[in-house]
Every structure is written in structure tokens, then in C-alpha cells.
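Researcher: I'd like a candidate sequence for this fold, 365 residues long. If you have to choose between options at a position, lean toward the conservative one.
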């Protein structure tokens, strides 16, 4: 019994130094530095603005006969919105037409008198001044006829204003008047009409960013072509990309920013006038750059660095210089080459110089 106990103790003593000295090799996850497509981007706060928005007003006075639209619905250009009673305008037009007929007859008589006087002058039966008077009377009759025809055209225009139509397709607002109301040029807005498709988003950009961007374009580091992407107030991504169509030539002195505008298709009316959105400007054409997962980068007083696993499966510390971040990957401008394996998981378990058991993470897509 004693020999058995001693044997077990010897075995335990023999195993103790090995278990105390031997350390399990730390397991880490590594990812290779690799060339991926990178699109430079920047994010800004923006506000949605309707491409067109107007107050619909009456241009002539009269009692309202019809409200021809449903509030808050889309109407096409030329659609009838309001109809004003037009009896007085039609009667006035008929009266002017009668005056035109009388004036035309008067002009005919004046022309006949002028021709008669001309014949008498030719025969030397009357003095020249009588022909001159007849010619002047004809001119007066023709002038009156022309004036009345102008009045008729003006009256036709007034009559056309009794039908208030949509100047462009858009969404109607609330009507401020009902059938039977007396409306006119002084009545104010009867409703609003808002064009939501296409729609615009304006956003201020710091002057320093504009200058830096222009310098990078001049050096050939970035493309000047960009697309605009939107994030809505609820965090959803707007599915349609827009194009920048305006950059202000003036700097806002209070904020030292430049106003930029992008235009978007809005077929479903998702973007509403006045809404706040997040705008991301992104290069239209991507560029190849050396990148690593963002979580591999650490920082201290010396700057940015990574821990990588070398060919001997040992950890190295490497200072790097970084650029922009895109989709969870960061651009490395100095310090690494393609294929270097940086540690992305298990960083807190290792230190430079120790051996590790490295498993490779899936390559970047």
C-alpha cells in the first residue's frame, strides 16, 4: 500500500514541472492585408426641399363654383383645381364682340367714303383736304377696331382665369376656400401645389473639406464624380442614389460652409418636403487600396499600429499610417504590404514575440 502511494507521488512530482512550465499556445484570428475597392465618402446633415412649391391664387374675382381636386392627392399638369363663376366674363366678351362688329362696319363705310373722295379729287370736283379728312377718318375707324379686338383678347384671357389649373404635376395641399366663397386676387393662397418627383436635398459642406477635396482631385487621388446616398430619419437607407447638380459659389459667413444640392428621383413620394436626412457623398468609381479590418488597428502615443503574425507564427508590432475607413475596413498607406497577416481577434491574449496559433478569417468581399 505504501509502495503504491509513493509511486503515485513520484508520478505527480514528475508531471508537475511540465504542467507548470508549459503554456498553451494562444489562439488568434488573423486577416490578410489586401487590395480592395475603396470609394471615398463623407457624411453630412441635409434637408429635403421640393423642386417646385407654389401658392395657388385666383387671378380674377368671382364666386367659387367648384373645387375640383381632393386634398393631398397628386394632380397632373393642366388639371382643373378651381372653377370661378364666369357668367359676367362671358357677357362682357359678347358685348365686345358686338362692338367689334359695329366698328368693322364703320371702318367699311369710312373706306368707301375715302375711295369716293379720292375719285372726286381725281376729277378735281373737291379739294384735296376732303380726301385727307376721309383718310384720317378711315384710320380712326381702323384704330378703334384694333382697340376693340385687343379688348376681346384681354376678356378671353380673363375668362380663361375663371378656371384655375395646375401649372405642373404635384401634390395638392388643403383648400382654404369652399364652393360659394367670393375669391379674387386679394384672397391669398387657395391651396398649395408641391412637386415631389424629382426632389432635391441641400446640405452645407465645410469650406475646408471643399478645399481639401479640390486639392486631392488636382493630385489625381480622387475622382470628382460622386453619387449621393440618403439615410432617412428612421435609419432606413433610401434605395435611389442621387446626383449633385449644384455647388454654391458663395460661402456662408456665419458657418463657413458651402451649400451643395443633390437631386433624387422620388416616384413613391417617400421623401417629403422639409424632412431631415443624412447625406453621404461617395465616389462613383472605386479605387484599389491596401486595406485591413478596422478592428485590427490600435493606437497609442506613437500612433496607429497593428499586431501581426509573421512567417514563424510569432507576434510582431508594426506601426502603420492609415487613411479613410470604408465598410469596416481601413486604408493603410504605409507600414504593411499585401499578404501581411494582422490579428483581428484575440489581441488581448498576446504580446510581441510570443508564438500563436493563427486561424485566417474569411477574405474581404
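Model: Candidate sequence:
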Amino acid at each position: 500500500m505504501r509502495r503504491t502511494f509513493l509511486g503515485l507521488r513520484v508520478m505527480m512530482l514528475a508531471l508537475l514541472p511540465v504542467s507548470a512550465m508549459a503554456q498553451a499556445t494562444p489562439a488568434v484570428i488573423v486577416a490578410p492585408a489586401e487590395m480592395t475597392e475603396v470609394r471615398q465618402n463623407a457624411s453630412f446633415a441635409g434637408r429635403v426641399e421640393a423642386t417646385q412649391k407654389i401658392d395657388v391664387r385666383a387671378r380674377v374675382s368671382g364666386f367659387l363654383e367648384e373645387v375640383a381636386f381632393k386634398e393631398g392627392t397628386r394632380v397632373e399638369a393642366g388639371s382643373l383645381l378651381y372653377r370661378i363663376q364666369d357668367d359676367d366674363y362671358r357677357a362682357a366678351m359678347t358685348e365686345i364682340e358686338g362692338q367689334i362688329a359695329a366698328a368693322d362696319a364703320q371702318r367699311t363705310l369710312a373706306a368707301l367714303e375715302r375711295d369716293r373722295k379720292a375719285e372726286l379729287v381725281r376729277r378735281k370736283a373737291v379739294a384735296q383736304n376732303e380726301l385727307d379728312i376721309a383718310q384720317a377718318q378711315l384710320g380712326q375707324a381702323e384704330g378703334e377696331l384694333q382697340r376693340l379686338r385687343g379688348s376681346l383678347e384681354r376678356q378671353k384671357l380673363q375668362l380663361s382665369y375663371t378656371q384655375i389649373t395646375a401649372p405642373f404635376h404635384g401634390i395638392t395641399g388643403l383648400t382654404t376656400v369652399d364652393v360659394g366663397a367670393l375669391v379674387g386676387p386679394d384672397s391669398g393662397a387657395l391651396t398649395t401645389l408641391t412637386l415631389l418627383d424629382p426632389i432635391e436635398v441641400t446640405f452645407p459642406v465645410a469650406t475646408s473639406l471643399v478645399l481639401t477635396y479640390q486639392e486631392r482631385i488636382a493630385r489625381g487621388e480622387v475622382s470628382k464624380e460622386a453619387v449621393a446616398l440618403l439615410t432617412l430619419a428612421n435609419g432606413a437607407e433610401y434605395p435611389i442614389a442621387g446626383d449633385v447638380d449644384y455647388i454654391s459659389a458663395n460661402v456662408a459667413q456665419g458657418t463657413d460652409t458651402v451649400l451643395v444640392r443633390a437631386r433624387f428621383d422620388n416616384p413613391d413620394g417617400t421623401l417629403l418636403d422639409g424632412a431631415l436626412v443624412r447625406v453621404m457623398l461617395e465616389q462613383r468609381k472605386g479605387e484599389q487600396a491596401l486595406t485591413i479590418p478596422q478592428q485590427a488597428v490600435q493606437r497609442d502615443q506613437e500612433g496607429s499600429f497593428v499586431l501581426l503574425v509573421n512567417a514563424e507564427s510569432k507576434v510582431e508590432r508594426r506601426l502603420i499610417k492609415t487613411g479613410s475607413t470604408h465598410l469596416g475596413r481601413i486604408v493603410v498607406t504605409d507600414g504593411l504590404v499585401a499578404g501581411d497577416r494582422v490579428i483581428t481577434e484575440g489581441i488581448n491574449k498576446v504580446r510581441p514575440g510570443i508564438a500563436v496559433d493563427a486561424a485566417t478569417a474569411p477574405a474581404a468581399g
